[in-house]
Amino acid sequence: MKADSDPESAFIPPRLDDSAALWVIRHGETEWSKAGRHTGRTDLELTEAGRAQAVALGGMLAQVRPVLVLCSPRRRALETARLAGIEVDDVDDDLAEWDYGDYEGRTAASIRADVPGWTLWTHGVPHGETAAQVSRRADRVLLRAAGELDRGPVILVAHGHISRVMAARWIGLPATGGANLALSTAAPSVLGAQYGLPVIDRWNIPNPANGNGGSR
Q1: Whether residue 27 lies in the annotated active site
Q2: In what order do the strands lie in the sheet with 22-26?
Q3: pLDDT, tens digit, for every residue of 9-59?
Q4: For residue 192, what are the CA distances in angstroms to 21, 69, 86, 89, 128?
């Protein structure tokens, strides 16, 4: 099954001040993220290491005073926010992870045994979401967040693939541009602006509890 190839218009946020700071945070480690299993709808809790990552994340964000915090409805994201001391203002279904359809719970290696050369970005998933569908969700979240950035920082607590899609869309790339943005568990990133244009200010900031990079 090929990924949705419908053309995507560039994401255009409201006018941005160069002080804009949109924090994008992937949840801490779970048993499935540690094993490289695609985790979309499955609602897992954090591992002990994931909880330590979340606590360390709180220290990394100690000086951030968000005017809005949006979180995925999945337990692993909500638990990450709670342990990091981040007060969630609203749970937004658009921040849920990519729906992997028939590939839920499978590793890339096991999928490639059936579909040589498979990647989520190039082939998509049977009976799950297309890249275009995830892109539309990402755009809605970004527009909502961007509308608040003139008041101060905004934090989004979400998942690996949806976060990578949001970053790609922020800088005007199609959703599949997220393929080139590796993201470790509980590693925060900052989307911002320079001369009024959307930029990736910082990406995949190392979490001190991640050891050798954290689970992907």
Answers
A1: yes
A2: 90-91, 68-71, 154-158, 22-26, 189-194, 197-202
A3: 777 777 899 999 999 999 999 999 999 999 999 999 999 999 999 999 999
A4: 5, 16, 20, 21, 31
Catalytic residue among 8, 29, 79, 97: 97
pLDDT greater than 80 at residue 190 = yes
When pLDDT is averaged across residues 195-206 and rounded to a whole number, the result is: 96
Closest residue by Cα to residue 213 from 173, 182, 169: 182
Tokens of 96: 């849920």
Rounded Cα–Cα distance for residues 75 and 159 (Å): 11
Could you tell me which residues are beta bridge partners of residue 156? 24, 70
Residues paired with 215 in a beta bridge: none
Q: Which of 8, 27, 79, 161 is catalytic?
A: 27
Q: What is the pLDDT of residue 144?
A: 96
pTM above 0.85, yes or no: yes
